[in-house]
Prior knowledge:
Two copies of one chain form a homodimer. Chain A is α/β, with parallel strands linked by helices. Chain A folds into two domains: 6-37 and 48-164 and 297-323, Response regulator (Rossmann fold); 165-292, Response regulator (Rossmann fold, 3-Layer(aba) Sandwich), CATH 3.40.50.2300. Chain A has 13 helices and 14 strands. Chains A, B: This is HTH lacI-type domain-containing protein.
Amino acid sequence: MKRITIYDVAKEADVSLATVSRVINDSNVVREDTRQRVQEAIEKLGYKPNAIAQGLALSKTTTISIVMSENLFAYNSRILNGLMDVAKIYNYNIMFHTTSKGISRMQDVIESIIKSRVDGVILFNDNFNDEEMEVLKEYQIPMVIVGARLDRKPEGKVGNVYVNFEKLAYDLVNESFDRGIDDITLVEDKLNLSMMNQLRRGIEKAYEEHGKEFKGYIGYDDSYKSSYNFLTDYYKDKKPSRLVITFRDSQAIAVRNAANEAGWKSMEDYEVISILDSKYLAMVRPPINSYILPEYDMGAIAMRLLTKMLVNDPSVQEDREIEIEYSPMIREKDKTGETEKVTFEAVS
Amino acid sequence: MKRITIYDVAKEADVSLATVSRVINDSNVVREDTRQRVQEAIEKLGYKPNAIAQGLALSKTTTISIVMSENLFAYNSRILNGLMDVAKIYNYNIMFHTTSKGISRMQDVIESIIKSRVDGVILFNDNFNDEEMEVLKEYQIPMVIVGARLDRKPEGKVGNVYVNFEKLAYDLVNESFDRGIDDITLVEDKLNLSMMNQLRRGIEKAYEEHGKEFKGYIGYDDSYKSSYNFLTDYYKDKKPSRLVITFRDSQAIAVRNAANEAGWKSMEDYEVISILDSKYLAMVRPPINSYILPEYDMGAIAMRLLTKMLVNDPSVQEDREIEIEYSPMIREKDKTGETEKVTFEAVS
C-alpha cells in the first residue's frame, strides 16, 4: 500500500493543498461544502494527517525534548516512565537525546534541540554546565531540570523538580550523631558528581555544627576496575567506618561484599546505606538500607510542571521549584549495637 | 532574546519566505546575489534553520521512532545506547514511544508513529501482536525488530536483529544432559513471554530428541508479590531442580536466595543460571552464571540495518535477519559434583 499524502487528498477532493491544510487544521475560512468534500477524501483514502505539517500550520509542534546521560539510563528508568506517562496524557511527541562521553558533544545536543524547535525541554541534572544552560536560556525554551537541586535559583523559563540531597545527608548525619556514631564515610560516585557535592555539603554542615571536621570522603582513581576491587584492597587492613554512605546500589553492595569478605560484621563493625533504592538492595544478605525517592512521581511532576510553563499558567509564574519528599527504607535495624533481623523480601 | 524565525530572515533580506526556504534547502533556482543576501541575514540574526521545515521541504524528516515497553526500560538500556550512538552518527532525530499497561494503547502508539511520518521504526519484541504488525507493514515504513527472533520470516520492509534463544536453550539442555543432569526447571517470566516461548521450545526439542518429556516449567500466579515469595514457599518442602533456568537476573537471585535459605546447597543440590547477564549476578554470593549477550552491539547493528533499509541498500534487499552471538559467563563452576570456587568480581 502506497503511503497516502496530502497531495493525494487534494487531487481526490479537487482542491488546493492549502485548502486541505486548512481543513486539517480546523481553519474556519473554508466553505462548508468544500470542507465536507475534503473530509470525504480523507476518509476514503485513509489519510493520516502529518503531525509535523499540522504543527507547522498551527506554529506549534507540541514536541518535548528529553535529554539524558547514557550512563544513567538504567538508574533513571522510573523517572522516565513518569515523564512519558504524563507526556502521553497531553499528546506530546517526545524527542529523545542522549549525551555520552566521546560520541556526542553537548553543543551538538543543544544545536539539535534548537533546530528542531521543540516547545520544551526536560533535562537530567549533571548534563549541562552553566555556560550551556545560558545558551538554552537565551532561546527562551521552557525547561525543567529533574533530579538534584540547582545550585542557583532558576531564572527565566527554568523549573526544577528535585530531591534535597544536602538536607537528606545533613539529617542522616545528625541522626547518626544521636546514635553515638560519628565515624562516617562517603564513597565517591563519579557518575553523579552534582549529587555527590550536595551530599558532601550536607555532611560537612552537620559536622561543623557539632564542632567537628568531616574527613571521611573516599575517592578512588579510575585504575580500579570497580568499587569492589578498590574496597577489597581498602578494607584488607582498614576497618570500615561505622557508617558508610554510597549514592548508588551497586556501590553499597560492593561495600557490603568487600567488608563481609574482610571479616567485618554488619551492624557491629559497620553499616552501609545507599541513597538511591533498588530492588537489588533487598536481594543481598544482609539486605541494605536506603531511601525511597518517589522517582516515577518526580518524572510525572516534572512533565506536568513543563505543561503549565508552556501555557504560561499563573500558578508557576513565581514558583517553579518543587521539592520531592523521600523516606528511609529500613531493611536491617540497629538496636544499641545489637543486630535485629527484620523481614525482608526480594522483589522480582 | 526573541526566537529568530524564517520571517525575520525574509524581512531582513527583503525576499519572500519561499526564497529563504530555497536557500536553506540548497535549491539551485536562487540567484547567487539573492542567496548571498539571505545567507548574510541568517548569519547576522543568528537564525537556526527549523529542522522540521527543512525536513518538509526535502520531504525527508530523518526521524526514527523507537518503541519500547516501559517495564523493560532498565533491562534494555544497553540496547538503547547502541541504537542512540548510531542514530547520532547518521544525524537522525529520535522520537521515543513507550507502551505500558493501562495508559497507552498500542493503537495510539501506531497512530502517533504514522501521523508523525517517521522514516523508520525500531521495535522491541513483545510490543506488537501480529495484527498490529500488519497495520505498520501496510504503511510501508521500514522497521527493525530487535531482541528475539520473529516467529515468521520477516516480509516487506521488516528486519530482525536477534539472539536465538531457542538454540541457546537447546544447547544448554544438551550440555546438561552430557553432564548427567536431566532434572531441569524453567521459571516463568511474564514480562518476556516471547523469549519464554522460545526458551521453552528449545528445551522441549532437546528433551524430545532424547526420548524424554520436559515437565519443568514453573509458572506462578500474580497473587505472589514476587518470585522470591513464591519460590520461598515452593522450596520449603520441594528440592530445587538440579538446574534452574531463569530469564532475568532478579529471578535468578530470587532462586538463589530462596533455595539457600531453605538449606539447599549450590552446585550440590542445584544450580541456577540467568539467561540475561547483569552486574548484580556477580554481587550475590555465590555469584550466578549467565550468558553475555552483546546488547550494545545489538542496538548499534539494528540502527545500522535500518539505515541501510532507508536507502534501499542492495546488501539488505535479501537478508534482513541478523543473528547475534552470545557466550556463557561462568562465575561458579561445577566439577563432577564438586563446587570449585572461581574468582569473581562485583562490577560497580
